[in-house]
Design goal:
This protein is about 35% helix and about 10% strand. The chain is an alpha/beta fold. α1 (about 10-20) crosses α6 and α6 (about 165-175) packs across α7 (about 200-210).
């Protein structure tokens, strides 16, 4: 089997993507901390998921410059994490400016070093919070950058859940026995998930619409099925 690098945040989407990648590749899991509010809890989730999948390689990188740059409620404590509102338009405060380009650059460097054939990322376009760097056209453009800027230029970017809703991701994870109990999605708490930030709301709605209980503890657990 060829080797693939998986960007693994510790959340449910990247966990399911890891399960998908393992069906056809050996996996190297990459986690990047960037000064986000739940940095320690996400790292714990990543480590446990890497153990669960017996990752052949694992690497943790710090990108604290993203916190220094700021501009996001995930990295700047002076910007409140907004309560989820599925009817709100525009890009939410949790968007980290050009974050995924930074993450991909590091992942491509490691993939080239490992001679990996692919880079997997758990971006979700249809059911995301409106982030511009979660669209497939962004990853198509980045693949062109890889082809022009690397020695090992055959690295492709796989986004296997990009067109799925959270409900479909939950069902895919169950099909693949993904360890949802090890994951963490909350944007603002590390003890129990808040249940009301964008990430918690999207996750909870996915589980509720799938008719499957979410194994994580929540401070609040609103019914999002009609949202």
């Amino acid at each position: 089997m060829e080797l693939a690098v998986v960007l693994a945040s510790g959340g449910m989407d990247s966990c399911v993507v890891t399960a998908i990648a393992r069906r056809s590749h050996r996996v190297a899991l990459l986690h990047i901390s960037y000064g986000q509010r739940t940095e320690r809890r996400e790292l714990k989730a990543f480590s446990e998921i890497a153990d669960y999948y017996q990752a052949e390689h694992r690497l943790v990188i710090s990108m604290q410059h993203l916190a220094t740059i700021g501009g996001s409620s995930l990295t700047d404590p002076s910007i409140p994490v907004t309560r989820a509102n599925f009817r709100a338009g525009g890009i939410p405060t949790s968007y980290v400016p050009f974050r995924n380009a930074n993450l991909l650059s590091a992942a491509v460097s490691w993939a080239e070093t490992l001679k990996a054939c692919a880079l997997y990322i758990g971006a979700v376009e249809e059911d995301s919070s409106g982030y511009p760097d979660c669209r497939r056209e962004f990853y198509d453009a980045f693949e062109s950058v890889i082809a022009k800027g690397t020695r090992h230029s055959g690295i492709r970017i796989d986004t296997p859940v990009i067109g799925l809703s959270k409900r479909e991701i939950v069902l895919k994870g169950i099909e693949l026995h993904a360890p949802f109990h090890l994951t963490w999605s909350c944007y603002q708490r590390e003890d129990v998930a808040c249940g009301i930030c964008d990430s918690c709301a999207l996750r909870l709605r996915g589980f509720q619409q799938a008719g499957v209980p979410d194994p994580l503890p929540y401070a609040e657990r609103p019914d999002y099925t009609a949202a």
